[in-house]
Design a protein that fits this description.
Distance between the termini: 6 Å
Helix content: under 10%
Largest sheet: 4 strands, antiparallel
Strand content: over 45%
Order of helices and strands: EEEEEEEEEEEEEEEEEEEEEEEEEEEE
Structural class: mainly beta
Shape: globular
């Protein structure tokens, strides 16, 4: 891997929480300082028109070249000139569009929108932080564990873990999550989850990109792998807290707390 040495404008001032790379530019959300876009010339501009001044951005998502911001004041979509509220005005932590239906993880359950109206579909009164929508299963990460809906059986399974599960991926058939304690949660395919702390690392999130799963921690970025039938972490970039990543072509972009948006080639 080759590290890119150039640094973006005001890279030291803002702690970044999310990054998304698209064909027309790079987007990054800073903690408490708004959302920025970097164009092909490497120049940053702030995208603040229409976004409430006190909004805290939890995640950015890019679907069909449309940028969405999951914020403390709701879900917003960027139309190229300003942010428009997508009709969901409660704190939002994750958004995905699957087919023609949008799904949002919020402070009050999981919501969906197949047309022009949002409706809550699961986990009322729970803070939902992430979800995975599979052909057979809907898997939801929330403030007390994980809920799993089996579409074929029309049945829910509840895994009360007494902690908040903040992100989810599937890796080699195992359900992998992160907790608000900085742990990695690894499902054993039998309804149990092992809680693993990797040294002094505090794990922020797990992110799936293609066939790879990346682990963002306060000590750097790692890649999840199996070694001797055990899940382990392989260092990708260490030395700074990495909060989020995205991949575009051969470039991997990292949002960091103290060193702006970093780029490496993969």
């Amino acid at each position: 891997m080759q590290t890119e040495t150039s640094k973006p404008w005001n890279w030291l001032l803002f702690p970044f929480s999310s990054v998304k790379a698209g064909p027309d530019g790079l987007f990054a959300a800073s903690v408490g300082y708004g959302i920025y876009e970097m164009n092909a010339e490497g120049e940053w501009s702030k995208l603040d028109q229409g976004l409430p001044e006190m909004s805290s951005v939890n995640r950015l998502q890019l679907h069909h070249d449309l940028l969405h911001a999951c914020t403390s004041t709701g879900l917003y979509e960027w139309n190229g000139e300003e942010w428009n509220c997508d009709g969901l005005t409660i704190p939002c932590y994750q958004y995905r569009k699957i087919g023609g239906t949008g799904y949002a993880a919020t402070d009050d359950g999981l919501w969906s929108n197949a047309g022009f109206k949002w409706e809550r579909i699961a986990c009322a009164n729970k803070h939902v932080y992430d979800f995975i929508n599979l052909p057979q299963y809907l898997i939801i990460a929330h403030d007390s564990g994980i809920s799993l809906y089996d579409r074929f059986m029309d049945d829910w399974a509840q895994f009360e873990l007494q902690l908040s599960v903040t992100s989810l991926v599937v890796f080699r058939g195992h359900l992998i999550g992160t907790s608000d304690k900085g742990e990695l949660l690894i499902g054993d395919k039998q309804g149990r989850f092992n809680r693993i702390q990797f040294g002094q690392n505090f794990i922020f999130s797990v992110v799936a990109k293609g066939s790879e799963v990346y682990v963002c921690t306060d000590r750097g970025l790692y890649r999840l792998t199996y070694l001797c039938n055990q899940v382990t972490l392989l260092a990708v970039k260490i030395g700074c807290p990495v909060t989020d990543i995205d991949v575009q072509g051969d470039d991997l972009y990292m949002a960091t707390l103290f060193e702006g948006i970093q780029t490496i080639q993969v």
